[in-house]
Amino acid sequence: MRETVKKLKEWSRDVEHYADPTAEIDPNIKYGRLIFNENLLLPEEYYREIIKHIEEHIDQAIRFYPSARTREKIENKLSEIYSIERTKLMLTAGADEAMQLIYDTCSRITDRTLIIRPCYGMAKIYAKSMRMKIEEYVIEKDYKINVDKVVDAVKSRKIGSIYICNPNNPLSIEFNIRDIEKIIESTDSIVIIDETYHEFGTVDHSKLVEKYENVVILRSLSKSWGLAGLRIGYVVAPEYIINIMRGIAQPFNISSISLIALERALEMYDIVKKTIQEIKSIREEMIRKIEEVEGVVEVFQSRTNFITFRLRDDINVQNIVNSLRKRGFYVRTSSEPLLENCIRVTIGPREIMHKFVNSLIESIYECEKSTR
Ligand SMILES: Cc1ncc(COP(=O)(O)O)c(C=O)c1O
């Protein structure tokens, strides 16, 4: 066999894929879909306005290639909304593409990355696909980052990039920004901060980009803006990195229809902000409710649009997930460290969440009864 084909076949056997949970879900289910941290509170009218705008611009939305002018207008608007210097922002096809681009960029000059876990699974998949060597640091048992350990690892193992997800998925908590800043200060490795959930948290990491040359922020419009289907996110980074990313990315990475839709969505930030506030309020109420559920031993202080909680270790989490599913609720477990026997549930509308908590109580009761 020829060498190239042989090597690619070897790679093909080893390649890791995203385990896509949408395969298990009926796409018509709306409120029981508490699995992807989408925004389930935005009113239908928000989406109807977007559709109306697309209909009024059919050629630009579908017939034509994406417009550089529309893209520029959107990047301007985002930098205005979030007070980010215009030259430090680039639109991407979801935070996912932003992650792929920054790993692609880093992999050309350094082959080692440090992933701070627990975290979103795609960092590892992208780094691996760029054939990088992956080092891992698992946060401490009190859910804090030991800065010295991270800095030591970066220095001793010649790490060129560090990935950290804050607010954290799947833990839901927020790490101390001072700890993150200490890591940034102590190294010239690129610190990639996945800030997909920032609007539900208390910290704005994008300000770090003004201060340091080695910080890259990944953001998404899938969660707070409720636009997961359009695949839009953006990256905030120093200009020299944005310049490389624009060189590496496809020229039309954002589809015309997504650009046109976003043009209208961005005019409705007030509606989005209202739902963010509402989600935060439901979150606090639900954390208290879930804490009272018999069989739940820990509920994390969420700074995201989901809640993560732990079941007593004699309760089989998979049985509870299956039982919730029978009652119409899809939730997630995680194989990340520190998340044994945990469930992650997206925050939906208040009445749905009340039903969810009742179903959780019933499911735990039923599972306990069957094992007695
Ligand atoms: C932490 C984190 N980063 C990135 C993403 C990907 O977001 P996007 O839909 O913008 O690609 C997700 C999606 O769930 C996420 O949870």
Can you walk through the features of this model?
With 372 residues, the protein is α/β, with parallel strands linked by helices. The chain folds into 2 domains: 3-44 and 270-371, Aspartate Aminotransferase, domain 1; 45-268, 3-Layer(aba) Sandwich (Aspartate Aminotransferase, domain 2), CATH 3.40.640. The chain contains 14 helices and 10 strands. It has helices at 3-14, 44-56, 58-63, 68-81, 94-107, 122-129, 147-156, 177-185, 206-211, 239-248, 256-265, 269-291, 317-326, 350-371; strands at 89-92, 112-117, 133-138, 161-165, 190-194, 215-220, 233-236, 296-299, 306-311, 342-346. The strands form 2 sheets. A 7-stranded mixed sheet has the order 1-7-6-5-4-2-3, sandwiched between helices. A 3-stranded antiparallel sheet has the order 8-9-10, covered by helices on one side. α6 (122-129) links the parallel β2 (112-117) and β3 (133-138). α2 crosses α11 (256-265), α5 runs parallel beside α6 and α12 (269-291) packs parallel to α14 (350-371). The longest helix has 23 residues, at 269-291. The mean pLDDT is 96. The structure holds pyridoxal-5'-phosphate. Residues 37, 94-96, 120, 165, 169, 194, 196, 220, 222, 228, 233 line the site of pyridoxal-5'-phosphate.
